[in-house]
Amino acid sequence: MNKKGQALSMQTVIIIILAIIVLVVLALNFTVGLQNLWGTIIGTYRIYDQGVVNLAKLQCEGYSPEQFCTSQIPLYNKQIKQEEMKYCYESPINAELMVGDKTLKSEADCVEYMGE
After folding, report:
1. CA distance to 54, 72, 104, 110, per residue, from 99 (Å)
2. Per-residue model confidence as pLDDT tens digits over 39-89
3. Cβ-Cβ contacts under 8 Å for 48 (sequence gap 6 or more)
4. pTM of the entire structure?
5. For 12-21, how does the pLDDT look when each residue is reduced to its tens digit (9 = 90+)?
6. CA dihedral sign of residues 32, 38, 40, 41
7. Fewest beta carbons within 10 Å, which of 53, 84, 85, 88?
8. What 8-state DSSP symbol labels residue 96?
9. In this structure, are residues 60 and 68 in contact, taking their beta carbons and an 8 Å threshold?
């Protein structure tokens, strides 16, 4: 006798795969939370608090050119769990300051401006 098992339809296989994906997402949600879920999936997350970065950028844009080029802003790095000092033109702040017809937006711009 030639007996064959019952074959699963393609629709059933797709539903099973989707159900497994949903269960994995739910498990990740309960273990790492929704805020870090996407970062956990792709392996990255925001290292700095975006609100603090935005405030630092506003602060830098109000500085004089000398303050802009020489001041460092403390930002807490969540990945290494300690504070780092960042210049206004450095990432993640990336502030820009207009001085006459020039824009200060990098260390090179500051060196050129301060050398004048």
Report:
1. 21, 19, 7, 11
2. 656 555 568 888 888 899 999 999 999 999 999 999 998 888 899 999 999
3. 75, 76, 77, 78, 92
4. 0.59
5. 889 999 999 9
6. positive
7. 85
8. -
9. yes
